[in-house]
TrEMBL record, chains A, B:
<comment type="pathway">
    <text>Amino-acid degradation; L-kynurenine degradation; L-alanine and anthranilate from L-kynurenine: step 1/1.</text>
</comment>
<comment type="subunit">
    <text>Homodimer.</text>
</comment>
<feature type="binding site">
    <location>
        <position position="98"/>
    </location>
    <ligand>
        <name>pyridoxal 5'-phosphate</name>
    </ligand>
</feature>
<feature type="binding site">
    <location>
        <position position="196"/>
    </location>
    <ligand>
        <name>pyridoxal 5'-phosphate</name>
    </ligand>
</feature>
<feature type="binding site">
    <location>
        <position position="275"/>
    </location>
    <ligand>
        <name>pyridoxal 5'-phosphate</name>
    </ligand>
</feature>
<dbReference type="GO" id="GO:0097053">
    <property type="term" value="P:L-kynurenine catabolic process"/>
</dbReference>
<dbReference type="GO" id="GO:0019441">
    <property type="term" value="P:L-tryptophan catabolic process to kynurenine"/>
</dbReference>
<keyword id="KW-0663">Pyridoxal phosphate</keyword>
<feature type="binding site">
    <location>
        <begin position="126"/>
        <end position="129"/>
    </location>
    <ligand>
        <name>pyridoxal 5'-phosphate</name>
    </ligand>
</feature>
<dbReference type="InterPro" id="IPR015422">
    <property type="entry name" value="PyrdxlP-dep_Trfase_small"/>
</dbReference>
<dbReference type="GO" id="GO:0030170">
    <property type="term" value="F:pyridoxal phosphate binding"/>
</dbReference>
<dbReference type="InterPro" id="IPR010111">
    <property type="entry name" value="Kynureninase"/>
</dbReference>
<comment type="function">
    <text>Catalyzes the cleavage of L-kynurenine (L-Kyn) and L-3-hydroxykynurenine (L-3OHKyn) into anthranilic acid (AA) and 3-hydroxyanthranilic acid (3-OHAA), respectively.</text>
</comment>
<dbReference type="GO" id="GO:0043420">
    <property type="term" value="P:anthranilate metabolic process"/>
</dbReference>
<protein>
    <recommendedName>
        <fullName>Kynureninase</fullName>
        <ecNumber>3.7.1.3</ecNumber>
    </recommendedName>
</protein>
<feature type="binding site">
    <location>
        <position position="199"/>
    </location>
    <ligand>
        <name>pyridoxal 5'-phosphate</name>
    </ligand>
</feature>
<feature type="binding site">
    <location>
        <position position="219"/>
    </location>
    <ligand>
        <name>pyridoxal 5'-phosphate</name>
    </ligand>
</feature>
Amino acid sequence: MSITRAGCAALDSADPLRGFRAEFVLPENVVYMLGNSLGALPRRTIEAVSHTVTAEWGRDLGQSWNTAGWWDLPEVIGDRIGNLIGAGPGTVLTGESTSVSIFKVMSAAVRLRPGRRTVVVESEGFPTDRYAVQGLAAGFDLNVRDFGPEGSLADSLDDDVAVVLLSHVDYRTGALRDMAADTAAAHAAGALVIWDLCHSAGALPVEVGAADFAVGCTYKYLNGGPGAPSYLYCAPAHLAEAEPVLCGWHGHAAPFAFEADYRPATGVRRFGAGTPPILSMSALGASLELWDKVDIRSVRAKSVALTELFIALTEPLGLDLATPRDPAGRGSQISFRHEHGYPIMRALLDHGVHGDFRAPDIMRFGFTPLFLRYVDVYDAADTLAEIIGKGIWQDERYQRRVTVT
Amino acid sequence: MSITRAGCAALDSADPLRGFRAEFVLPENVVYMLGNSLGALPRRTIEAVSHTVTAEWGRDLGQSWNTAGWWDLPEVIGDRIGNLIGAGPGTVLTGESTSVSIFKVMSAAVRLRPGRRTVVVESEGFPTDRYAVQGLAAGFDLNVRDFGPEGSLADSLDDDVAVVLLSHVDYRTGALRDMAADTAAAHAAGALVIWDLCHSAGALPVEVGAADFAVGCTYKYLNGGPGAPSYLYCAPAHLAEAEPVLCGWHGHAAPFAFEADYRPATGVRRFGAGTPPILSMSALGASLELWDKVDIRSVRAKSVALTELFIALTEPLGLDLATPRDPAGRGSQISFRHEHGYPIMRALLDHGVHGDFRAPDIMRFGFTPLFLRYVDVYDAADTLAEIIGKGIWQDERYQRRVTVT
């Protein structure tokens, strides 16, 4: 039974999420499979940012810290994100970059396990996660233990392990870890666990459950905009004692008392430090409004259907699938290993299909169910077949490397 | 010889900076003396942010990391700021909050003086500076030594002092330190020095000179917008060896190689960590374009004239001036200590004069020469006289505290 474009169009017509595509600005003749890197622009964001610039800043000026609620945005937006990851009110904070959030929670977590001097990170984890931990470890004289994708987490744990940092979905392969099982394994060894939700929140149901901490970015499946602030989660059990080593006035118990000494705020606010970038926060806040109407189970169901469709359509190409074949074991992306992955992805882009390349050899396609259609997936597979089949990728112009891929 | 409003209007007509006011959005009937806290909205910023949202993000999507130069913004904008603080190209980086920047440079500075375990900070410094250092010191087991405003810096130094963190302009009193002299004193004791330029860059000529590091915020006199990213400066002599403890992929030598281990970039880029908030960066970039046409010496001359005018006009009120009387010893603000400072500032705001209150008793007025006029200063003084003279501030509604003042 062959898959036809008309069949895909029929799936789009029956899609319970079909109404959401109109909420986004998407260029004509583009199949955007890069929503796992930078999400598309929600239409409502245009008006929201404009309002923040001209009315809140331009007209109301510094008063907007009160009147527009700027001061409370890190927690207000945090609570909205909490709804997407199974975290209760007052446990999620937004405002600074993912690297900074990782550094904050890792430094706080290590302090909760005094006497233990080792942190476990994935050998194939997203580099900034590794770099943040390596920097902290060098400064605080901790041991960093690498944990490979093939190994068992339990085998990497012992009574010197203070904290384990894991990615819910692997950024290269799209492999999905079992959060509950890994969290239990870490706890069984007396370690705390931090989850990186960058590639899962907004793409599939996430439940922080017994996790101690989590961090995530908002510019991928949450469509918060380029460089949108990250979020961090702290389990209620740790809120009273967690103290990140990176402190600032937004995390103080009484920021406008201008006290000489640091005193952490009650609750997740204690993870605040610097003043958050309000224009970027405004865009993020607008994008999150969309989620009030979204059933995340429908998102996951469509994500599985779209990725299954893409695997089926590209099967004749004989590509080396880097993503787990079982949909239960992957997030919302499909990756192939290919020695010519770079020029192939450049040629695809030139033909209207946006995906990306991740060194050394990964061709990556993201599936954002809120705006990606079944016909888009059909067209992407068709274009990929043409580019490989006709050797279009061999054109000289696709070999040239650009700074950011 | 009394000062008249007509005389002030004449000064405005002769002001070489008079053309710049039209570059800003300013509400009718408002005297905005809070530019030292949140600068006003430059008109060009409206279009710039709109372009970034709709064209760069909405239309060009992830390609804008290359095509719109997003990836290079931290250094490109950094170089523009460098022009305002006497720092050469490739020595200034933007992208994260002031608290994070302070943490980064302080952690790098301490490592450049191994064996020395004390850092000196101002007892009256801006709280977030103190908090960032206190957090780092607790984690790194450093001693924090307070240095009072009345003391001599040299007396606070000895051979255990690794780093001194000083504010160029005091946020409460507006007192201006002698950067060259203090830098020399720190160096004479073998210590490094970090300057906080939050309340000076953009308000007066700044020369980093022999300073080792500097940080500053961009939402005050630089009008970058609420929560606009901060900047940090690293002296060329330290660029090859400085290593902040907070690391991330934007600071890596080859960020798109996705290497497993951190390797700092060459140059100031090594201070990068997380992905910068692009919408806020866009606003900052637009605001900085204004400075290409500004002679900072004219800004300083007008700042001195405006602050002298305000002191003269308010003299009959017998207020307790907290700012140095000699203009050479102050930045671009005037502060008074007053036991009823809070309700007075609330009443002023209600009468169209925006200033702010800083606990415990400081009434603060900022002077941004690019948009503040002599007649504005006249009107502000007039309103202040009325509010104090008629006891308007005693009204019950001005006593109520709001979250952010």
